[in-house]
Specification:
Layout (H helix, E strand, L loop, with lengths): L11 H10 L4 E4 L2 E4 L5 H18 L4 E3 L4 E4 L4 E3 L3 E4 L5 E2 L2 E5 L4 E5 L5 H5 L1 H6 L7 E5 L5 E8 L2 E8 L3 E5 L2 E5 H5 L7
Parallel strand pairs: 4-8, 9-10
Antiparallel strand pairs: 1-2, 1-5, 3-6, 4-5, 6-9, 7-8, 10-11, 11-12, 13-14
Length: 189
């Protein structure tokens, strides 16, 4: 058995240069640069509806962002573009990247066949290293299902919500219907 090793890693400054020259979104993970897959119409619709529902529920208390916002998690050496992000309070930019925020309160990922395992596993663990983060919403591309991963006094817990139920979070305080999120969306098989 052989052990794979990296032959080349990139600095964050190199990543920013490549990103600036790119017409696609690129994710930075521990020195590696990855092209982010484009989404399906259902993926885009779910992300847009999550943004609308979060903004309606949170009102002026928090700012809600699209997938154009870059989030930097220095502890995990990750720069990524979640499907939606929420910041409650002042926005904190990274010292080494003025276009990346470091203090999201909520992150939203709409899963896809190629990203579901990563979104629910390694990426979620990296997100949980953010001290400001209170909740992650994992929106399923397969079924009317939203997983709320929320910070508690003793760590993190997960709650699953299905069609006919209301996703409810107390910090920050928001709620929305799973059926409203999936309204008009043709789910992928």
């Amino acid at each position: 058995m052989t052990t794979a090793r990296r032959l080349r890693t990139h600095s964050y400054a190199q990543y920013l240069k490549v990103l600036g020259d790119s017409h696609i979104k690129l994710e930075f993970i521990e020195g590696e640069i990855y092209a982010m897959a484009s989404g399906t119409p259902a993926h885009a619709q779910l992300a847009a509806q999550a943004i609308v529902l979060l903004k309606q529920s949170l009102g002026k208390a928090c700012a809600v962002f699209t997938s154009d916002l870059k989030i930097l998690i220095e502890r995990a050496a990750l720069a990524t573009f979640p499907d939606a992000a929420v910041v409650c309070g002042p926005q904190a930019s990274a010292d080494k990247d003025a276009n990346a925020l470091t203090n999201p309160s909520v992150l939203v990922e709409v899963t896809s066949p190629s990203t579901e395992f990563y979104d629910r596993g390694e990426k979620l663990k990296m997100y949980q290293q953010l001290p400001s983060l209170k909740a992650v919403l994992l929106v399923s591309h397969r079924a009317r299902r939203v997983t709320l991963v929320r910070r508690t006094a003793s760590g993190w817990d997960e709650l699953d919500y299905r069609g006919g139920e209301v996703v409810a979070c107390t910090e920050p305080n928001f709620q929305f219907s799973v059926d409203d999120l999936y309204e008009g969306v043709a789910l992928e098989a």
